[in-house]
Amino acid sequence: MSTPPDDRSFRREMATAYRSGWHFIDLVTAIPHSGDSLMVTVFGEPVVVTRDEEDDVRAYRCLRRPRGAPQPVRCAIRYGMIFVNLDRRDHQLAEPAPQAAPHTISATPRSA
């Protein structure tokens, strides 16, 4: 008879084996119009998939902390299917940072 794993080893196994990769959520036809959303649970984490005004599909991890802002996760559409990647090691930001303006702006520090 084997003993069940403790909670720490279970969480570690979930983080390394299951969360590291792309996971199928649903078909794109599930959110056909801008403003539509879909709430799913992926390996115990609630994820909201929405279609914005530009018809882009985006996914957000819902934090359970009070006043926690939704955290963007990687989302891809392949062959009409929505996939998300919850692995934080795989990417730093779900969306690329905007490019800095080519000109610099001088400002006076507040202590001056």
UniProtKB/TrEMBL annotation:
Domain Rieske: 22-70
Domain of life from the UniProt record: Bacteria
Region annotated Disordered, chain positions: 93-112
KW NADP (keyword) present: no
One Gene Ontology molecular-function label: oxidoreductase activity, acting on paired donors, with incorporation or reduction of molecular oxygen
PROSITE patterns reported for this sequence: RIESKE
Keywords, comma-separated and alphabetical: 2Fe-2S, Iron, Iron-sulfur, Metal-binding
Protein name: Rieske domain-containing protein
